[in-house]
Design brief:
With 139 residues, the protein is α+β, with helices and mostly antiparallel strands. It contains seven helices and four strands; from the N terminus they run E-H-H-E-H-H-E-H-H-E-H. The protein binds adenosine-3',5'-cyclic-monophosphate. Residues 52, 57, 61, 91, 109-110, 112, 115 line the site of adenosine-3',5'-cyclic-monophosphate (CMP). The site of adenosine-3',5'-cyclic-monophosphate has 8 residues, from loops.
């Protein structure tokens, strides 16, 4: 079973759609293996998105990610990384397919409701940013 990390961002939590987002993942056969609500500090958000530290949107992104609680979760299933990305839709909601989370709920590329790892290798490091192996219920 492949694993991936997803985050319901502060806009998703504020819009009260945690259940809706999780349900969309579950309906496509993904299993929640670990889940936690946390408030990221600015430093915690910078660490998570360190790969984007040279991008012009880095400061706004990390301000936004530390602006309110987020829900971090590990999802598992066949082709989990690709599946989660398909369910989320394109990073920019204006380009997302109808029926995807971002098309249906996101206001902009900055406030785009969810994050999902972009490859299995990234998923492994992103999962371990938030969870240790004892937190992940694979049974
Ligand atoms: P996410 O999948 O969480 O990964 C990085 C985030 O940066 C992305 O979603 C967007 O919310 C945000 N972002 C803002 N501008 C851009 C951009 N031009 N390209 C990619 N991501 C961007």
């Amino acid at each position: 079973m492949e694993k991936t990390l997803s985050i319901i961002k502060p806009d998703g939590v504020k819009k009260n759609i945690i259940g809706e987002v999780v349900s969309r993942f579950e309906k496509q056969g993904l299993k929640v293996l670990a889940m936690r609500m946390i408030s990221l500090t600015k430093k915690g958000a910078c660490g998570f998105y360190a790969v984007h530290s040279e991008r012009p949107f880095f400061n706004d992104l990390t301000d936004f990610m530390s602006s309110g609680p987020v829900v971090v979760m590990v999802l598992g299933g066949g082709d989990a990384v690709k599946k989660v990305r398909a369910i989320m839709g394109a990073t920019n909601p204006a380009e997302a397919e109808p029926g995807t989370i971002r098309k249906d709920f996101a206001d902009s590329i900055d406030n785009n409701i969810v994050h999902g790892s972009d490859a299995p290798e990234t998923a492994a490091s992103e999962i371990h940013y938030f969870f240790n192996c004892l937190d992940i219920c694979e049974g």
